[in-house]
Amino acid sequence: MKKTFPLEVEGHKPARVIEMIHRDVKKYLKRERRKELPEGVDFWDFDCRVGGSIETAEVVHVSKISEAISSAPEKEWQAIYVEILVKQGVRMKRDRPPYVAKDKSSE
Predict the structure, then answer these.
(1) Could you write out the DSSP letters of every residue in 39-63?
(2) Handedness of CA 76, 82, 83, 89 (dihedral sign)
(3) Is 95 inside any structural domain?
(4) What's the confidence (pLDDT) of residue 105?
(5) What's the total number of domains in the chain?
(6) Considering the domain boundaries, does residue 79 fall inside one?
(7) Could you tell me where the DSSP H helices lie in 1-107?
(8) Which are the contacts of 17, defined by CB distance < 8 A and separation ≥ 6?
(9) Is residue 101 part of a domain?
(10) Labelling 22: which of 32, 55, 70, 80 has CA 20 to 30 A away?
């Protein structure tokens, strides 16, 4: 999804337009996550950018898209550019310290 949303829409207040943008983004993410995963892939991951225009868009984590969109009126943007690119994600095994059981006999 690469889309520019205008903040000034005739007949709607900017706060309502931002709610519509949130809804569109959530709908897109939900639709992409429902797609079947290829063999060897654990989850769908996303590369995201949000900004006032294509040139000024900054990289954000998928969990921070909502905050970035909500901050648009404070930054006085005329429009919001949202870019969400889907990629395949594979979970990496973390090295954890070995579990050491407590000795109950000393208590």
Answers:
(1) TT--EEEEEEEEESSTTT-EEE-GG
(2) positive
(3) no
(4) 67
(5) 1
(6) yes
(7) 14-34, 65-70
(8) 5, 6, 7, 8, 9
(9) no
(10) 55
Give the CA angle between residues 27, 75, 84 to the nearest 5°.
Answer: 30
Q: Tokens 């969400």 correspond to what residue?
A: 84
CA-CA distances (angstroms) from residue 22 to 4, 11, 27, 63, 72?
A: 13, 18, 9, 12, 12
With vertex at residue 57, the alpha carbon angle to CA 89 and CA 47, rounded to the nearest 5 degrees, is 5
For 56-95, write each residue's pLDDT tens digit. 999 999 999 999 999 999 999 999 999 999 999 998 887 8
Burial of 105 (0-12, 13-18, 19+ CB in 10 A): exposed
> Which domain covers residue 54, as residue numbers?
2-89
User: Taking a C-beta distance cutoff of 8 angstroms, is the pair 48, 62 a contact?
Assistant: yes
Beta carbons of 81 and 53 less than 8 angstroms apart: yes
Neighbours of 69 (CB within 10 A): 19
